């Protein structure tokens, strides 16, 4: 997530299922309008302090984080009191009545959370065990990664990836390697949005050379 410090013009970020716990790198993304953070490790709603400075943020998906707590109403009211410009929270439209009620039932967040000593992201040893069984993790990662990838592709006017094609991208890889590779793909698609025509031409030429190399290798193996 630290890469976001160098992407002030980014508009859509999808970081679901990434072990993220600190939102500080997002506070300079002034053009950010949609942020997807479902099922991460965000433990405190105080992290919303870093999103208060984002004037264009309209969509936030924060569900399935520890910060949501046992009281859904208190959680939603606190988020809406802190970010009253939101139009959708956790895939549910925000109403004028909720915004008014949030001033009464929500908790005001006025300071950032205490600094953590542990960096964002899962360690190699915990990456596969954090979401439970291997089968459950695979289903969750495929579902979230496909959703996030297609969201990004839609923003870039690219063709959406069908589920049957997506699940066969890396059939011989482990769950953890598949997750890392999907995250790299999403990062590349997001970064491409920051490039001009000259930069995209460089990408196109590089991809063409890589594909030729892979094709040549496959022919040699055959």
Automatic annotation (TrEMBL):
It comes from the Eukaryota. This is Cilia- and flagella-associated protein 410. SUPFAM superfamilies: L domain-like. GO terms for cellular component: ciliary basal body; photoreceptor cell cilium. Pfam families: LRR_4. Keywords: Leucine-rich repeat, Repeat. SMART domains: LRRcap. Found in a complex with CFAP410, NEK1 and SPATA7. Interacts with NEK1. The keyword Repeat applies. Residues 72-90 form the U2A'/phosphoprotein 32 family A C-terminal domain. One of its GO terms (biological process) is cytoskeleton organization. Plays a role in cilia formation and/or maintenance. Plays a role in the regulation of cell morphology and cytoskeletal organization. Involved in DNA damage repair. The keyword Repeat applies.
